[in-house]
Design a protein that fits this description.
51% helix; Butyryl-Coa Dehydrogenase, subunit A, domain 1; 4-stranded antiparallel β-sheet; 3 domains; Butyryl-CoA Dehydrogenase, subunit A, domain 2; 388 residues; Butyryl-CoA Dehydrogenase, subunit A, domain 3; single chain; 9 strands; alpha+beta
Amino acid sequence: MDFSFSEEEVALKDLATKIFDGCVKVEDLRAMEAGADWFHRKLWEELAKAGLLGVGLAADVGGGEMGFIATALLLEQVGRTVAPIPALATLVMAALPIDRFGSPAQRERWLPRVVNGELVLSAALSEAVQADPLEPSTTARRDGKGWKLDGVKIAVPAASFAERVLVPATTPDGQVVVALVDPKASGVTLEKQILTTLEPHHRMTLAGVRVDDADVLGDAKRGREILGFIVDHTLAGLCITEVGCAERGIRMMAEYTSTRVQFGRPIATFQAVAQRAGDAYIDVEAVRLSAWQAVWRLSAGLESSEELAIAKFWAAEGGHRALYAAQHLHGGIGVDTDYPLHRYYLLSKQIELTLGSAKVQLARLGSILATKGAAAPEATEPRRAQAG
């Protein structure tokens, strides 16, 4: 089997790498962290000019129709450069489900503007009172030819500058609607929340927010399928972002320990340092393998629940260990905010806790395996030959 990327995917990755390296500078990150605008708009514009924002979307909306793997390659670069852009929120959490489940009018209205970089979209998956994103406590009640939404979402990315936020809500009969909500609509209140990476997210309170049927993705009968699609692809996107983040972190570790001299030789030659670095490398390779396996299965339309739980476990557990080791082997400079490594540690920690930590993923994997085991046919005892 050939596990390598196609020529088109390699070319896409090379182009993305060039754009990210050309736009994302340490001084830019410092300025954005100190200012009010977290969004690296120049990078977003350059990605749009190169046609990279739409690589995973259909051709009829201006996309490259290269599938989810192409979008994942872009997210890997986001992690590698800790770029402050809403790529996961816009491209994966919102644009992909609109492309897959949206009406012709919804796809025509929103997706071409995503491709050309004109707008930002987002989705609200997390709640303080409900840990499982597949079971939203936010409610949707029928109101004529539309719905009224009530509830509270937390840690909503890019909510302050998104034109629409996908909001999943549970109906009285247990179905789910996924509504395209205007964050400036009547009844919506946004309160800023600063996350681990200093990225501004928002607590989004919905009090009787009315949404027309035309702004519902699919319908309530397909709502759970749509929400599952969003959560699965978001999990995979987080894992791939961690691949880029963790790999860059241990590369910085390798460069530092190879040049930091103590007792007349580089500290990388000390056995304890080499062992710690080797363990970190193995962790990152596990993060990479499991993440790309999950992405490939999703892109191929295969059942991916086990692979996603495994990938998110490694992104959370292996990613944390690798970045912690990188900080440890840097010594005091590893926690100095004038040195760039701290951003990678903080991004890794945020990914670790988003949509379920390592323990949550192990519990999820256990439930999946238990359900499969219960559904398997009972083993029968082999018959023994009887004496004649």
